[in-house]
Amino acid sequence: MSAGIWSLVPFLVVIPIAMWTRQVLPGLLAGLLVGAYMQNPTPLGGIDGALAYIAKELAIPDNLRLVVFLYGFGAFVGLVRVTGGVSGFAHWMADRVKSVRGAFAVTWVSSLVTFMAPDFRIITVAPVMRRIFERLRVPAERVAFTIDATSTPVCALVPVGTAFVGYMVGLIATSARHQTLPGSPYHLYLMSIPLNFFSWIILAYTLVLSFRASPSAERREAAQRRAEDERRAADRGTVRGVPRPARLNAETRLKMASQFARAEFGAELPPDLPPRGRPANVGPSGTTAVARTATSGGQSERRHTAGPAAADGLNPPDPVEFVSERIPPRLVNLAVPLLLLLGLTLFLTWWDGRGKAPTVWGALAQANAAKAMLEALLITLLATFAWYTVQRVPVERTVFGILAGGNEMMGVIVLLALVWAVSAVSTDLGFADYVESTIGRTVPAAFVAPALFLFGCAISYVIGSSFGTWGMLLPLGFSLAASTHTPLPLIAGAVFASGTFGGFASPLSDNTVAMATVMKLPVMDYARHKLKPALWAAGGSALLYAAAGWVVS
Description:
The chain is an all-alpha fold. The chain has a domain at 62-213 and 320-415. It contains 27 helices and 2 strands. Strand 1 (238-239) and strand 2 (242-243) form a beta hairpin. Pfam families: Na_H_antiporter. This is Na+/H+ antiporter family protein.
């Protein structure tokens, strides 16, 4: 189809519906169907066309590798959770904190081993640090902000060993099919990392906030401590003013967890769970955990509590947490698989690109990183499974962890498949050519990156999804870059930064809800607490994008 204004229709459908429903999937599905019916205007033509686009995109080798990688990465996270690795790390941290500065130092250092996914970091670190900082009399908002700021922004910057990397590299490859890339998609992603200004600014701000509180901040924290003490005194023995319901007994919790595992994960709980011992995520007093899609960037809606605190309400316990809290903590069951995954990823990436560049860094940039990451992940899964078997971990438990963790990633996989299909149908409608011939000739190059960043911040805040924002805006950004001669790394950095803003600051983000749940904070109050510094960081980022756009133009 020749390029025309009608080629904009799929995107004009996707964005308003996503903002109205605050969910990306309905918007993408509607945009795909509209685009398919525009090409096949018969009663069943649009449906057949949409299915054909999805099947065609999933059949592309690189796309299929990414789907397998995302499912395998979820399986990896589930596996280390049900074998005591996560709880072992939690206990290791809890035993080494003696002061407020030390607690914040441990919080930052912990990001070195929990950077794989934002929610994975939250459910691993937040329950432990909450108990530690409560003992040190530090307000929960300050603790939550520090952990949150070292979750999504860090995951967006780490170039290896995360589901974010696979997703971002896959989007770059899809969005740049009609562009000349400066190297491989992974190379372009590496070039965009220094240009993700929002992540760098919010990390710098949080680092200062963690170790150097101003007098006004100290007074505010003292007032928060007094208010929290008063609230606890008033609500002692109640839940939000209502008498605390009876605790669920062990048999009821086991039944609920089994039903939830079958319904959500299609997996059965291991039949030989040991008796319940010390909770996995904190110490003797228990905690609240949140089980969600660990890398969805804001797409998962499933929230529930687990561990001892779950017994205070009637929510079904998270099956993975239900299993994890009965497993003896073993830090080595997290450290060894993680080091193996990172080492293999770097080695296999270099191995794939060693013939394309004379230097190590050049080989890493020119390699097929998606293929190398998948190979490293599969080898790690096989080796880890064998190692756990040698430890006499029941096979039923490891299989459950693999299935439960992998199935949690299905929401991300469906999202990505729809992003691919919408991008393909818009290309066939002439979207790229139309943007280049019209919008690209009227928008100054210096304004493209800051405008795209601010627009993306608005979308990501409304829908609460970093992955969804990236999927909607990156194809548009690359089309604008081609027509305005704006460097692709700058556009990629602006889009990734805008999605990071929403994943961090939006009250609809699963990170915000998970953190507020774990830290026992009102969601909207906590979201407002984060919004002001996030807006300052976004404003500074917009100025930097404007300056960078002016320089390159």
